[in-house]
Amino acid sequence: MSELLALLIMIVLAVYVVWPFYRLRSQNAAWQSAAGVSIQDLHYQKRIATEIIQDLHFDHQTGKLGDEDHQELVREQEGLISRLTDQLNKHSKSSNDLSARLESEIAQQKAKLFQGNGAVCPGCGKSRPQGAKFCPQCGAPLA
After folding, report:
1. What's the pLDDT at 32?
2. Does the pLDDT value for residue 102 go beyond 70?
3. Which whole-number Å values give the CA distances from 46 to 26, 59, 81, 96, in the listed order?
4. Which among 133, 135, 111 has a CA at the least distance from the CA of 123?
């Protein structure tokens, strides 16, 4: 009876110790599937693929790898690099779109700020915001 109780306690203890690791792994998997792969991960995978190609070239030169195998393995890695590059370009395109939208919003806000006061800078001739002591374009002091 005491042996059965000891076995049960060990099982409960093992589950207690292992459960946080399982939960953390499942949360990480859910986070990665929801957020996608980070840009750093894509760059890392691309760097690893190029290193693998270098290793394949070395193995081919030393005779460890035949011509056909070498070409096939290099093609696979080059395909992977191409897919990773496409994903990186998609990420950069979306971040460029965001930057363009932010720049547009900033330009609109500046236009609203400078609009309607009729005052211009004597140094550069650009319109200036009301109550400004210095021109935001050229830095000239304003009266």
Report:
1. 46
2. yes
3. 26, 20, 6, 21
4. 135
pTM over 0.90: no
Distance (Å, whole) CA 111 – CA 107? 6
Cβ neighbours of 56 (radius 10 Å): 20
- According to the model, what pLDDT value does residue 68 have? 92
At 49 the pLDDT is 92
Distance CA 117, CA 77 (A): 61
CB 70 within 8 A of CB 55: no
The whole-angstrom separation of Cα 120 and Cα 110 is 15
**Torsions phi, psi for 62 (to 5 deg):** -85, -5
pLDDT at position 95 is 66
- Three-state SS at 100: helix
Print burial letters for 79-113: b (CB count within 10 Å at least 16), e (below 16).
ebbeebeebeeeeeeeeeeeeeeeeeeeeeeeeee
